[in-house]
């Protein structure tokens, strides 16, 4: 069964064709990140305008990469939310149009669930075992969920302020590094000493599964203001910040896995690309930990097609709307 997945929740336009929820036949990704770099963050209007330009060519390219015709597809899947409303609308209206013209069922998908489902795309791996704990950590979200089965999510906790990726982006901007900040901080951190500065690990001991990263960001602001070191020890600050945020994410995720007797931990979202997070979580976890490959950790159409495969719930086009604030359910 081949499903075409469309993802336009933020700046990326992802279109992929996935067979039987695992085999990627085509995966086209177009990003407008370069257009946003000078603003230090995503400008929603610019993102949506760019998506209007690239979405149809991306669909054509996906079909030709998969050497397929629309007739081969079982369904079209599209991100319904959460995300930027203008961007979501571009994907949703396009998906509605092609599904109608091609006479295919249309399946709305929750973007957050999609990030967890990216883990089913690893070739030659066994299927994940339930119950599992999912950590979605991206530019817009930091959520811990318990997944009892396909489509059965229980939200355990999330950030009360900045998302994990947002904290990376803000600290990078403060240090004069580029956007997106995660990869920039990561490469600076490789040259720095993670113990150079003792930064807070907010909420690491709280009994709940919530996070708070704005205090950590403020601690970096204060450090930059008060330090006498000149030039600013950017790599030491980056390494100290990265190790603080990773320690909080790892500690709380493992605590959730233990409490709910999870058989596995699955991570997704842009921050899942972070090598220290990957290494530390794998090293410390008592259960199997999965991460998508780095390109599949960021937004893409393939994860949307997989989520739709395991949750095959088509809806009439008229009932599908952009849901910018959609939470954890499919
Ligand atoms: O999932 P994603 O592509 O888009 C959203 O849905 O938000 O995540 C983007 C976020 C950005 O904040 C970016 O700085 C962060 O993921 N990110 C990273 C790394 N690569 C991307 N954060 C830490 N380390 C990385 N290697
Ligand atoms: Zn995302």
List the helices and strands and how they pair.
Elements lengths: L1 E6 L4 E8 L3 E9 L1 H4 L7 H22 L7 E9 L3 H18 L3 E5 H7 L14 E6 L4 E8 L2 E7 L5 H11 L6 H9 L24 H13 L7 H26 L4 E5 L6 H10 L3 E3 L3 H4 L3 H10 L20
Parallel strand pairs: 1-4, 4-5, 6-9, 9-10
Antiparallel strand pairs: 1-2, 2-3, 6-7, 7-8
Bound molecules: 5'-O-[(R)-(carboxyoxy)(hydroxy)phosphoryl]adenosine and zinc ion.
**Beta-strand content:** 15-25%
Q: What's the overall average pLDDT, rounded?
A: 95
Strand order of the largest sheet: 3-2-1-4-5
- In whole angstroms, the N-to-C terminal distance is 20 Å
**Helix and strand element order:** EEEHHEHEHEEEHHHHEHEHH
Count of extended strands: 10
- Ligand identities: 5'-O-[(R)-(carboxyoxy)(hydroxy)phosphoryl]adenosine, zinc ion
Provide structural commentary.
With 330 residues, the protein is α/β, with parallel strands linked by helices. It contains eleven helices and ten strands. It has helices at residues 33-36, 44-65, 85-102, 111-117, 164-174, 181-189, 214-226, 234-259, 275-284, 294-297, 301-310; strands spanning 2-7, 12-19, 23-31, 73-81, 106-110, 132-137, 142-149, 152-158, 264-268, 288-290. The chain has a five-stranded mixed beta sheet, with helices on both faces. It has a five-stranded mixed beta sheet with strand order 8-7-6-9-10, sandwiched between helices. The mean pLDDT is 95. The structure holds 5'-O-[(R)-(carboxyoxy)(hydroxy)phosphoryl]adenosine (KG4) and zinc ion (ZN).
